[in-house]
Structure formats: structure tokens, C-alpha cells
Amino acid sequence: MESFLPKKNGLYLSLVLGNVNVTLLNKHSKFAYKDEYEKFKLVLTVLLLVFSFTCRFVFSYRALDALFNFLLVWYYCTLTIRESILISNGSRIKGWWVFHHYVFCFLSGVMLTWPEGILYQMFRNQFLTYCLYQSFVQFLQYYYQSGCLYRLRALGESHNMDLTVEGFQSWMWRGLTFLLPFLFFGHFWQLYNGLTLFRMAQLPECKEWQVFMCGCSYLVLFMGNFSTTLGVVYHKYIHNQDKSKSL
């Protein structure tokens, strides 16, 4: 009964929506909202994949890059709002996988304000190639995680409000460990982006504050993503070791 009672919004939802009650009143409504959230992520992931490919290999216009970064800002802002509503309705999303969307939103906003110049062009292709790879991996994650969640729900081993995430969680050991190399490669690409930007920030012609801020954002993303994913793998390994000893 408690899960269907109105709840006070958290700080973020209060700032964005005010005191609007976001508690959905039945299981069907909650599942429908979760399903719509998943479809939204899929459609935007495909759109970002096509958009990043177009900017990287077809057109090279700063205005088009700005539109792409604006789309990223809007996408991640929308995700944070929807995820906050889902958490209020019982979704069990790990803290980092929510927080890293705020970091991505900040990073995309900084990229949006980065003016045209030599340093922007130096990093542009690397950034767009990374975005292309990230969208591809997110599509893989959605496709395989959604199928895995469906099977686990049918077996009664998953919560109805569990979501697909841009990372790795313990329930994904059932057939999704092949995603780990893709994830770790993306994490180290974030580290590479951060180190590249820090080197660019030391150049005498670097006058833009965006270079250093983007470097810090990528470093935060790498540390958070890598440590969280590694923690899941480590705890699962320890759990399996304890289980084998007990047998």
C-alpha cells in the first residue's frame, strides 16, 4: 500500500516540477510509464547514432554540431527527470547510473558553448567518434538488457520496475557478460578524452575554459563508470567464490 501513497518530491523534482504529485496509482500505470521511458531511450539512441555519424562523416558545420550538443543536453535533462519520477514509483536505479546522466548533461552543455576555433577542431572528430561508439553500445545494451529483463520478470526473478542502464548491474550476469569488453573500452575512451583535453589545456593558444571543464567531466565519468562496473564484477566474483566453497 505504501508504494501507491503520494510521496513528497525530492529536491530535483521539486525544483523542476514544483509540488506536483508524480506517484502513479496502479501497477499498470507504473509499468506503462517505465515502458514508455525505455522506448524514449531507444528512439533517442538511434537518433543520436545517426546524428553523430552525419556530423562526423557527412557534414562539418559548427551549427550542426551545436544542434547535436543541444539534443544531447535535452536528452540527458529529460532522462534525469523521468528517472526521478521512476524512482519515486519504485524503480531501483543505482545511484551512479542516475548521477552520471547529470554529468553528461553538464558536459554536453559545456560542449555546446565551446566556440569555433583551432582547439575545437582538434577535438571535434575524437568527440564525435566517441559519441558514435557510445550510441552504438547503448543500443546494444538496450536490445540485450530488455530481453534479459523480460525473461527474468517471466521467471519471477526481477522487479517489474527494473530498468535498462548504460552500465552493468548484478542481474546482467545471466547471459550479458559479453557486453563488458564494450563497456570497459568505452570507459577507457572517456579517460583518453580527458587526458587529451588536459594536454590541450596546456597549449599556449588555449584560451577557452571549456577545454579544462570537459577534461574534468570526462575524468569524473571514467572514474565513476569504471569503479562502479568493476565493483559489480568484483562482488559477483566474491559471491561465486563463497558459493562454490559452501558447495
TrEMBL record:
GO cellular component assignments: endoplasmic reticulum; nuclear inner membrane; plasma membrane
Similarity comment: family membership: Belongs to the TMEM120 family.
Pfam families per the UniProt record, alphabetical: TMEM120A-B
Transmembrane segments: 40-61, 67-85, 97-115, 171-189, 209-234
PANTHER family reported for this sequence: ION CHANNEL TACAN, TRANSMEMBRANE PROTEIN INDUCED BY TUMOR NECROSIS FACTOR ALPHA
Record key words, sorted: Cell membrane, Endoplasmic reticulum, Membrane, Nucleus, Transmembrane, Transmembrane helix
GO biological process: fat cell differentiation
Membrane topology field: Multi-pass membrane protein
Listed name of the protein: Ion channel TACAN isoform X3
Keyword hit for Disulfide bond: no
Coiled coil (residue ranges): none
Localization annotation: Cell membrane; Endoplasmic reticulum; Nucleus inner membrane
